[in-house]
């Protein structure tokens, strides 16, 4: 169950409390996120929407340990990550977070297999074990017949499938998707969303996704709107009620 009121049971996979992020631009202080609360259970699929500059990507970066909050805490599966040291946070991120971006970020001189294998090179897995993991991930996304192809030999949808395989190859605790269909046509976008839904339904993955596309957001279990640093549940948005106040 997804909650934004800070009243979670304490057993949620992801717990965010009082999350605030402030940037300084010259002499000006810009508060991007304001005391956000969020509870996400294992197997949840939540979509975040909001205008450009509303802090959606900032929120994903904080949840993935790529940035640190100005205030507040983030706890994932019992690990409070907001005060982890750099090296420990890097290890935590490699074990627990799978990233899927709008731009595929594949290395053009590596094959699909080699791109997917990259996260495993930092582990203690043997070459044979790494191959098994990579082949399993590519099979999940339906690309075993393209494993020796280079990115330039793949369609946009196939490149995004490779990106998803790379994200899941280490069996992370949760997936962070930043506009995963933003560079795809509708048919390819639908195929990618069907794959993400399959990861949730059949593989027990927890997914947090940012999108500008209402059609894509509708595929999530719950859609939350982020505006002026505050999370608003879609069902409450229509009533004008904001988490922690009134819109």
Summarize the structure.
With 247 residues, the protein is α/β, with parallel strands linked by helices.
State the CATH topology.
Answer: Rossmann fold
Global structural class = alpha/beta
Order of helices and strands: EEEHEEHEHHHEHEHEEHEE
Q: How many beta strands in the DSSP annotation?
A: 12
Would you state the CATH class?
Alpha Beta
Any idea what the radius of gyration is? 18 Å
State the CATH superfamily name.
P-loop containing nucleotide triphosphate hydrolases
Helix percent reads 25-40%
Provide a descriptive summary of the structure in words:
It is built from eight helices and twelve strands. With 247 residues, the chain is of the alpha/beta class. The chain has a single domain (42-68, 88-239), classed as P-loop containing nucleotide triphosphate hydrolases (Rossmann fold, 3-Layer(aba) Sandwich), CATH 3.40.50. The strands form three sheets. The chain has a six-stranded mixed beta sheet with strand order 6-7-8-3-9-10, sandwiched between helices. It has a four-stranded antiparallel beta sheet with strand order 2-1-4-5, covered by helices on one side. The longest helix is centred in the C-terminal third of the chain and has 18 residues, at 186-203. The chain is globular, with a radius of gyration of 18 Å. The model is unreliable at 239-247 (pLDDT under 50).
């Amino acid at each position: 169950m997804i909650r934004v009121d800070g009243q979670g049971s304490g057993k949620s996979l992801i717990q965010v409390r009082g999350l605030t992020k402030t940037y300084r631009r010259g002499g000006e202080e810009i508060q991007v996120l304001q005391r956000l609360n969020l509870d996400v259970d294992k197997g949840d699929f939540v979509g975040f929407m909001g205008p450009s500059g509303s802090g959606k990507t900032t929120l994903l970066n904080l949840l993935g340990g790529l940035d640190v909050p100005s205030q507040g805490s983030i706890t994932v599966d019992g690990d409070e990550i907001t005060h982890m040291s750099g090296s420990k946070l890097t290890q935590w991120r490699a074990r627990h977070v799978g990233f899927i971006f709008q731009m595929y970020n594949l290395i053009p001189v590596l094959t699909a297999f080699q791109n997917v294998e990259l996260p495993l090179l930092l582990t203690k897995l043997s070459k044979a074990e790494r191959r098994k993991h990579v082949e399993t991930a590519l099979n999940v996304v339906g690309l075993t017949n393209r494993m020796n192809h280079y990115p330039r030999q793949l369609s946009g949808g196939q490149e995004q499938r490779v990106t998803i395989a790379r994200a899941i190859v280490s069996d992370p605790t949760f997936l962070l998707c930043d506009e995963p269909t933003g560079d795809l046509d509708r048919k390819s976008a639908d195929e990618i969303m069907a794959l993400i839904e399959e990861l949730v339904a059949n593989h027990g993955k927890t997914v947090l996704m940012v999108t500008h596309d209402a059609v894509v957001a509708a595929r999530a279990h719950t859609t939350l709107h982020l505006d002026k640093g505050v999370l608003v549940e879609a069902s409450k948005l229509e009533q004008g009620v904001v988490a922690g106040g009134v819109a």
